[in-house]
Design goal:
Helix content: over 70%
Shape: flat
Order of helices and strands: HHHHHHHH
Radius of gyration: 25 Å
Strand content: under 5%
Largest sheet: none
Distance between the termini: 48 Å
Oligomer: single chain
């Protein structure tokens, strides 16, 4: 069963990568192009420019799709494992509702909450010497966010026994917000955006990044849930035939 779910999640990731590529082309590529042009202009002014190892055309088409494919398939596999862990443990929720909640939690913990602290930046922003530090900070924030999301879900379920579902949900959410607030305050910020970088390009790039991630998670959650529900419906035993001839009623036996 786990192997089937894993394959289903990875296939959903393939579909998600196609839709995410379309979103990236429509919303994000023009902003990346403007950011690269900004970087190139600064390199020219400074008197130097690194040679282009891969053409911009390849980067924005084949390279972009390959990156999204690998990312989405990996997310789909991890998502399927998370679904397998919570399946049947969320009360009376069916396959689609469970899949949607897992996708929402994954999107929130894996991207949205870290994004609020460390939003995405175009490739031209940031000091190359601080890439390692920035990456470590982002993954630390991601780990904290995932722990908070899972912890809030577990706490809400346990508190529901004593306080009821609505109050337990509010208490769990308040605890999660408090924990995130502490993490946001403790972790250092990253402020490496050039003063003359176009603000509209930066904003549109961040919106595009958010839209791409939302597309990946939404597609995986909705498609995985639909396929899983369909599989469960097919494997469910057919209802018994209760016609008089099969049940032995007096009308059928003449008794």
């Amino acid at each position: 069963m786990a192997r089937t779910l894993l394959i289903r999640g990875m296939l959903a990731g393939v579909a998600a990568s196609v839709l995410a590529f379309v979103v990236a082309q429509v919303l994000g590529e023009s902003q990346v192009g403007q950011a690269i042009a900004f970087e190139s202009a600064h390199h020219t002014t400074a008197g130097g420019h690194d040679p282009e190892l891969v053409s911009r055309t390849v980067q924005s088409t084949l390279g972009l799709f390959a990156g999204l494919l690998v990312f989405s398939v990996a997310i789909g596999g991890l998502y399927a494992l998370a679904y397998a862990c919570v399946q049947g443990r969320l009360g009376g929720l069916g396959a689609r509702a469970t899949a949607a909640l897992v996708a929402l939690g994954g999107f929130a913990g894996g991207y949205l909450l870290p994004y609020l602290k460390y939003p995405a930046n175009p490739p031209s922003i940031g000091d190359p010497d601080t890439v390692g530090r920035r990456t470590a900070l982002y993954f630390a924030m991601m780990a904290i966010s995932l722990v908070v999301v899972v912890g809030a879900a577990v706490a809400g379920r346990r508190l529901a026994v004593r306080f009821g579902g609505w109050t337990a949900g509010l208490l769990a959410a308040a605890g999660g917000v408090l924990a995130l607030g502490v993490a946001y305050a403790v972790l250092p910020g990253v402020h490496e955006t050039p003063a003359d970088f176009p603000a509209d390009v930066l904003w549109r790039f961040r919106v595009a990044s958010l839209a791409i991630q939302a597309t990946v998670w939404a597609t995986i959650g909705l498609l995985f849930g639909a396929l899983t529900e369909r599989s469960l419906d097919r494997s469910a035993p057919a209802p018994e035939d209760r016609s008089p001839a099969r049940t032995g009623s007096p009308a059928a036996t003449g008794g």
